[in-house]
Design goal:
heterodimer, A: alpha/beta, Rossmann fold, 18 helices, 23% strand, B: mainly alpha, ABC transporter involved in vitamin B12 uptake, BtuC, 2 domains, globular
């Protein structure tokens, strides 16, 4: 990244609270999560840390809070260099983090949960002291939670307040919140922001990790943008326009040539491919007014309507957690829908179980190949028939499995989809990630489906395997099959799709051809910002 | 992410390694057995017994001659079946400890069939079928509670064990009681008994029923679609659901199959175990058959074939334990101590991690050797 991208970098000053210098993190599998990231944190400011999935936001804050050691670089305070070996050390220094997934004991009440983070949580003295401290804290911060109720009985917003109180009770100076608003109702969000402002006025520093542009504008003083592990922007919120931030977040479209090189690096097709127009007259998948609830009962998919035709790739882009998973699960029978209709070739699929949906011609490449796609201790052969184990080809009299036929099928899959393994009896967990995914994709495409629902099909794969799988999807499209592609990898969706939907908080912000969308618009839509008239 | 397949490894070493991994479960079981015996020896030393003499006697009694083998096998027969009950449910992802109660119900049903008058052979088969059905029905209770109300099977099977126990006490004392001898039930008529296999021992043809059941279970689990679905749902319920497998169906299947096995175990005890062929009040022969089966299942690594060998081992401990008692003067309870330590050894996950460390150091050793030879 060139220096001109780093807008308005603040001059180093003496009165900082903490400074991260040249933080680089390389994970043991070779992934570079952070490259030379610098950040200066002052007392009494709210910093918004903005970025897409995998931009390095969480890694950066994990390093600050002592959960991960940096590969290179250092964190210094005015008192000198600091290096935390554990979150506990960071906490006693004054840095506390509130994670997206709460670490609360459901049957304990708020006071007991807070006491847990102290040394002798079960001593009555500690508990009384904690209670007293909490009451005082609640007085000061205006943050109110019932102290005597088991936390599992509290609303999600209240549970989050318990988490915040837990951290505040350790007298922290720097509070890091990881996507705190993703589980909150709008009213709870307002309350949270009011609280953050009060804490700021009390001299605390706050880092707010988010991908929502609106939130950045409403509460932060300064915005730091991360992209692919690099700090690409550090601007006062007042000077930053939403468009500018959106562009920083998803990256600027480079000139044509550089763009081609970059795409090739990622194994994506470079130019507009020869695309046969094979789109069918009738839609294969029709969805109307679909509403699906998430795990915590919130509305995850909100009154969604769209069609996917044969011979097209319909891409769903967006930051993860905006309802994509719930949409896919509802369409494949893994989650029940609240309202609405969905049909394959005119036949209703809501309320059916996964096998019945598969019988209607739906193949599903699941987003989590270890949890859903594979039974890891099973062999290659056993995994290759998951979902099709009742095919007549494999099922003899008295429901005997024809292992001969199964093994033959697996060998064909291995050859056709270039799955590298010692043989059909190799355990699935001995395969590399790419080969595991090829096994799943091969198994699903062998069903010869009308529609392929592919969720994050290339996540975590090396370029070769990712390219191979993308080519397979395009091949299926050219054969006239419908593809519903859900991916957090924006480049992938842009390069593969015939039509793109940008999903935000359970709704499609737009459905358009990738040619008609520039990256700035996409960034804004992904961040939930309204687009100017005529921009789409 | 494992980049497991290393193409550079020489062919021969790959073979050795694969064989070792294949045997790993067996090796772990053998190690656990060894640890159990060693700790047993230490305890004997502490209490002033001679462990060498004790173990020599145990070995002699269990496997020293045909009589020893026969009585070891005879004691192993019900253990094969109750171990299968436990294993099938483990494979289906459940912890079913209801074999004990199902054994009682199987035994009661088998004795009840003793009232029938049927030709030899047919009488035996009818008895076995009744016993198996009784076991399966008894396991339906916890199954239905689990599938409809989500009641944890550990709790419900424990409760059903107690109900079965006192129901059997009642049946033995009042319903099936021998009118001439109040301390036991009527004896199974000769027409419904398993013939003795080796004259002068208590090993009967029941061993074939047990082994046949183990083989059937092996084929059901590894060679039928239903078994495939049971195992898939046990290993990864989410993936199974994704694959269109109904986990309620596989759970019910596992409960019923297990119940059939435990019921059969009850039948082998009363129909194939000379000289009583009846339930004696207090049920000394039935007691713990189900619980011991869990230990056998663990050592047999929840595999039907492994369970057959493990049953022979546990049967040998019991059979040889008696010899140990009267030749070396070591109390029979010591055998229970050894069994307990073996189960603990198998159950401690920490130890499995130790095995893993051992494996990785083995790998390191192999790589050093490879560098030497290169």
């Amino acid at each position: 990244m060139t220096d001109k991208d780093r807008i308005n970098r603040n001059e180093p000053s003496r009165d900082y609270y903490l400074r991260a210098e040249g933080i680089t993190k390389v994970y043991s599998n070779g992934t570079v999560a952070l490259k030379e990231a610098d950040l200066e944190i002052h007392r009494g400011e709210i910093i918004g840390l903005l970025g897409e999935n995998g931009a390095g936001k969480t890694t950066f804050t994990k390093i600050l809070s002592g959960l991960l050691p940096p590969t290179k670089g250092r964190v210094i305070s005015p008192r000198g260099s600091v290096r935390f070996k554990s979150p506990r050390e960071a906490l006693s220094f004054g840095i506390g983090m509130v994670y997206q997934h709460f670490a609360l004991v459901g049957t304990f009440n708020a006071a007991e949960n807070v006491a847990l983070s102290h040394d002798h949580p079960f001593s009555p003295i500690q508990l009384t002291a904690t209670k007293k401290k909490l009451e005082q804290l609640m007085e000061e911060s205006g943050l109110r939670v019932p102290l005597d109720v088991p936390v599992e009985k509290l609303a999600v917003g209240e549970q989050q307040r318990v988490e915040i109180l837990k951290v505040l009770s350790r007298d922290v100076d720097l509070l890091i919140l990881d996507e705190p608003t993703s589980v909150l109702t709008p009213l709870e969000v307002d309350e949270l922001f009011a609280l953050l402002r009060r804490l700021k006025d009390a001299g605390k520093s706050i880092i707010l990790i988010t991908h929502k542009l609106k939130e950045v504008g409403s509460v932060t003083d300064r915005v730091v943008v991360l992209r692919h592990g690099e700090m690409v922007g550090d601007v006062p919120t007042a000077q930053a326009s939403t468009e500018q931030l959106a562009q920083l977040m998803v990256g600027k479209a480079l000139d044509e040539e550089a763009n081609a090189v970059e795409l090739q690096d990622k194994g994506l097709p470079t130019a507009e491919r020869e695309r046969a127009n094979v789109r069918t007259e009738q839609p294969v998948l029709e969805v109307s007014g679909l509403t699906v609830k998430g795990n915590t009962g919130e509305v995850a998919v909100d009154n969604l309507s769209f069609e996917v035709y044969g011979g097209e790739i319909f891409g769903v882009a967006g930051v993860e957690g905006n309802g994509q998973s719930e949409l896919v699960e509802a369409l494949t029978g893994l989650r029940s829908a609240e309202k609405g209709k969905a049909s394959i070739n005119g036949k209703n699929i809501l309320g059916l179980d996964p096998r019945e949906i598969y019988m209607l011609g739906v193949a599903h490449i699941p987003e989590d190949r270890w949890r859903l796609g594979l039974v890891l201790p099973f062999t290659l052969a056993e995994n290759a028939i998951l979902g099709v184990q009742r095919w007549d080809e494999f099922r003899g009299p008295m429901s005997f499995l024809r292992w001969g036929k199964v093994n033959q099928h697996v060998r064909e899959l291995m050859k056709r989809f270039e799955i590298r393994a010692t043989g059909p009896s190799a355990p699935a967990k001995s395969l590399s990630g790419g080969n595991q995914q090829k096994l799943i994709v091969g198994r699903e495409l062998a069903k010869d489906p009308h529609i392929v629902v592919a969720s994050q099909p290339t996540r975590g794969l090396d370029i070769g395997a990712a390219k191979y799988i993308r080519d397979l999807l395009v091949e299926m499209r050219n054969k006239g099959r419908a593809i519903l592609l859900v991916s957090a990898d924006l480049d992938e969706v842009l390069a593969l799709s015939d039509r793109i939907a940008i999903m935000y908080e359970g709704k499609f912000m737009t459905i358009a051809s990738p040619k008609d969308l520039d990256r700035e618009t996409i960034g804004m839509l992904m961040g939930g910002a309204a687009v100017k008239e005529g921009a789409v | 992410m494992s980049q497991g397949l290393t193409e550079t490894v020489p062919q021969k070493e790959k073979l050795v390694r694969r064989t070792l991994t294949g045997f790993n479960p067996a090796i772990e079981s053998l190690l656990a057995a060894a640890v159990g015996l060693i700790i047993g020896a230490i305890l004997m030393l502490v209490w002033g017994y001679n462990p060498w003499k004790a173990y020599a006697a145990l070995l002699q009694g269990a496997y020293g001659d045909a009589y020893g083998w026969a009585s070891s096998a005879a004691r192993g027969v019900p253990l094969i079946l109750t171990a299968l009950t436990f294993s099938i449910c483990v494979r289906a992802g459940m912890f079913n400890i209801g074999a004990e109660g199902q054994v009682y119900m199987g035994a009661v049903a088998a004795v009840a069939v003793g009232y029938f008058v049927l030709p030899a052979g047919l009488h035996l088969i009818v008895g076995l079928i009744f016993a198996m059905i009784a076991g399966a029905i008894w396991s339906l209770g916890p199954a239905i509670l689990r599938l409809t109300r989500g009641v944890n099977e550990v709790i419900s099977t424990i409760m059903f064990n107690w109900i079965a126990r006192f129901l059997t006490f009642y049946m033995v004392a009042f319903v099936l009681v021998d009118p001439l001898r109040g301390e036991k039930t009527i004896s199974i008529p000769v027409s419904a008994r398993f013939p003795v296999l080796i004259r002068g021992t208590d090993l009967s043809w029941s061993i074939f029923a047990a082994v046949a059941f183990a083989i059937v279970i092996y084929f059901v689990l590894w060679h039928t679609v239903t078994g495939y679905e049971v195992r898939a749902a046990g290993l990864n319920p989410s993936a199974a659901r994704y694959g269109g497998i109904k986990s309620k169906r596989t759970m019910l299947m596992a409960f019923v199959l297990g119940g059939l096995g435990a019921g059969l175990a009850g039948a082998t005890i009363v129909m194939g175990n000379p000289p009583t062929y009846a339930i004696i009040s207090g049920m000394p022969q039935l007691m713990n058959a189900g619980f011991d089966g869990m230990a056998v299942a663990m050592v047999g690594r929840n595999h039907p074939i492994g369970i057959i060998f493990a049953s022979l081992f546990f049967g040998g401990l019991t059979a040889g334990g008696r010899t140990m008692q009267f030749t070396a003067g070591v109390p029979l309870e010591m055998v229970r101590v050894v069994e307990g330590v073996i189960v603990l050894t198998m159950a401690i996950p920490e130890l499995i991690r130790v095995f893993r460390v051992m494996r990785s150091s083995w790998d390191r050793l192999m790589s050093v050797l490879r560098r030497r030879s290169a």
